[in-house]
Specification:
Strand order of the largest sheet: 3-4-6-5
Number of strands: 6
Shape: globular
Distance between the termini: 40 Å
Number of helices: 7
Largest sheet: 4 strands, antiparallel
Helix content: 40-55%
Radius of gyration: 15 Å
Length: 168
C-alpha cells in the first residue's frame, strides 16, 4: 500500500497534458477521489500506471513523476537533505505499508551519499525521486549532483544513486 497523495503527484507531472495523465491512472483503477492524503491504495495499481507512463510517454516523464512525488510525500519537517537521504528507508515506510523493498543509504568518507534502491519502482522513477529530495525545500541553499548507476537486470537491486554536495 502507498499513500494516495504520493500517487496523486503523478498527475502533477502531466501539467501540459493533464487528460493523458488522468487516463493512465484511471486505466489502472486509481480513482482521483481516492487520492486523499489520509488514504492508502494498492502499490501494484500505481506500478502498473508507472509502467504505462514509461511505455507511452517515456522515461523522462517517469523521472518527472519521481521528482513530483517528493512534494506530496510525508517528510519530517526541519530535516536537511542529507538527513532525509540517510533516513530514506524510514521515510519510505512512513509512506508505504507492507513489504515493498528498501532504500539502503551509506555515507562515504568523502561525504558522498550512496542510495541503493531495492524497491519495485521503475529505475527512472527512483532517479527522479532522489533528484526531488535534492531539490526539496530542505536543500535550500545547497546544490547536489545525482549520478545514476544502473543495477543488474531483474534483480532486487535496481539502481544506485550517488549524491554529492556541489561546491559553488
Amino acid at each position: 500500500m502507498v499513500r494516495a497523495a504520493n500517487v496523486r503527484a503523478t498527475l502533477d507531472a502531466f501539467k501540459l497534458v493533464p487528460g493523458l495523465g488522468r487516463r493512465i491512472v484511471e486505466k489502472h483503477d486509481l480513482r482521483i477521489s481516492d487520492m486523499r492524503p489520509d488514504n492508502f491504495i494498492r502499490v501494484q495499481n500505481w506500478l502498473n500506471a508507472l509502467e504505462d507512463i514509461q511505455n507511452v510517454v517515456g522515461p523522462a516523464k517517469l523521472r518527472d513523476v519521481g521528482r513530483n512525488v517528493v512534494a506530496a510525500a510525508d517528510i519530517p519537517l526541519g530535516q536537511d537533505t542529507e538527513v532525509i537521504l540517510m533516513n530514506l528507508d524510514d521515510i519510505y515506510y512512513h509512506n508505504h505499508r507492507g513489504d515493498v523493498g528498501h532504500y539502503l543509504s551509506t555515507r562515504l568518507e568523502d561525504g558522498t551519499i550512496e542510495v541503493r534502491c531495492e524497491t519495485p519502482y521503475p529505475r527512472n522513477f527512483e532517479w527522479g525521486l532522489i533528484e526531488g529530495f535534492c531539490r526539496h525545500r530542505a536543500a535550500e541553499k545547497k546544490r547536489y549532483s545525482v549520478e545514476y548507476i544502473d543495477g543488474p537486470v531483474k534483480a532486487a537491486h535496481t539502481c544506485t544513486l550517488v549524491v554529492r554536495l556541489l561546491n559553488l
